[in-house]
Write a structure and sequence with these properties.
The longest helix is centred in the first third of the chain and has 41 residues, at 96-136. A six-stranded antiparallel sheet has the order 2-3-4-5-6-7, covered by helices on one side. With 352 residues, it is α+β, with helices and mostly antiparallel strands. It starts with a helix and ends with a helix. Helix 2 (45-81) crosses helix 7 (292-321) and helix 6 runs antiparallel to helix 7. It is built from eight helices and eight strands. It has two domains: 3-139 and 254-349, no CATH class; 146-231.
Length: 352
């Protein structure tokens, strides 16, 4: 591994870790003051510490691109002020010799962000929401996800969708336990003692051991048992596979899946943004010469753009949730905007 690569790689990595530690410390302090008012009113010291520790993976997953932008900017400003960029240029080394180690650090950050978002935050977010709901908001925890209900010799399996609708499976059995009928519907809702089913598939066994299947566009099933209160699964509680299958269920039922599609694409767009941020840092903070004013403005602009990136991400989520723009486009919008701007500024700086 070339010496220059190791030098820039280790320098950028150390500044990024320092930036991450500083942001985590600021976050913990602010969050501690915010949640301290609930101490003795649902929260105790143990739950407070658990809450803070569980919030860290979420914070890292959300802010990793911003951490990379600030960390890389700090390191490049340091190189510029120490005339080391001039030395690199004088040695005939192009911008690629700087971007390659920076991109390697960003790739590690992107991999860490993806791993945290895929396998850590679905677990920690579930526990966080439970603490928030039960111990802070003092609400009874409702039954999430799939639920089974029994009405005489009929068993209902309900998977919550949206707008108080469910994917329904009903099994009807004889007193001796033998099954008599199965009904599948991708979309059903309950009102005044009646289940209204769409695109129902009714399966019944016949005496000659041949399955009889009937498809009905609409069907009603009377039942004294309605759905119990059930929370919709939250996108932040689901990994890629769960999101993918749930989106297919919603589409099969003819329902919108905006926030879930957004969350699915964010699992890839957010890590990719880490790579784009080091290009932005190079475009703003890589100077030849010791010009403190330009370096300071570059750092201020980097911090400001990091905040804008986060705001655009939140705005995209709100627009996708309200069906104003396609959710996949909303998830990739911050990366498209910042990636295109970063490449343009860098090419302009290099005289292209």
């Amino acid at each position: 591994m070339p010496v220059v690569f190791r030098w820039i790689f280790s320098g950028c990595l150390s500044r990024s870790l320092v930036t991450m530690s500083a942001l985590l410390a600021i976050f913990v302090i602010i969050e501690s003051f915010d949640k301290a008012r609930y101490l003795g009113h649902g929260l105790d010291g143990r739950l407070m510490v658990e809450y803070m520790l569980l919030k860290i993976p979420f914070m890292l997953s959300e802010f990793m691109p911003v951490i990379m932008l600030i960390g890389a900017s700090l390191y490049l400003i340091e190189l510029s002020r120490n005339q080391e960029v001039v030395a690199l240029r004088a040695a005939g080394l192009g911008i690629n010799k700087v971007l390659l180690p920076l991109s390697s650090v960003a790739l590690l950050a992107a991999l860490a962000s993806f791993i945290i978002g895929e396998w850590v935050t679905p677990v920690t977010n579930t526990r966080l929401d439970q603490i928030e709901q039960v111990h802070i908001q003092h609400k009874k925890s409702s039954q999430p996800g799939v639920q089974w209900l029994k009405d005489g010799h009929r068993f209902f399996r309900l998977t919550p969708l949206t707008n108080h609708q469910f994917a329904l499976l009903m099994l009807k059995t004889a007193p001796d336990g033998a099954w008599l009928q199965r009904i599948d519907s991708p979309r059903a809702h309950y009102s005044q003692g009646v289940w209204s089913l769409s695109d129902a598939r009714v399966s019944t066994p016949s005496s000659d051991q041949v399955m009889h299947v009937e498809k009905l566009k609409n069907m009603e099933v009377k039942s004294a048992i309605g759905p119990e209160t059930a929370d919709l699964p939250k996108p932040g509680h689901m990994d890629f596979s769960e999101l993918y299958h749930y989106i297919n269920n919603l589409k099969h039922a003819g329902l919108g899946a905006g926030t879930y599609v957004y969350a699915l694409h964010r699992k890839f767009s957010a890590p990719l943004a880490c790579l784009l941020m080091v290009i932005m840092a190079a475009a703003l903070c890589l100077h030849t010469g010791n010009r403190n004013s330009r370096a300071s403005w570059g750092l201020m602009l980097s911090i400001s753009l990091g905040l804008v990136f986060y705001v655009i991400g939140n705005a995209g989520y709100l627009l996708a949730a309200s069906n104003r723009i396609p959710p996949a486009f909303a998830a990739w919008l911050p990366s498209l905007v910042f990636g295109g701007t970063a490449v343009f500024l860098l090419l302009k700086r290099e005289g292209h």
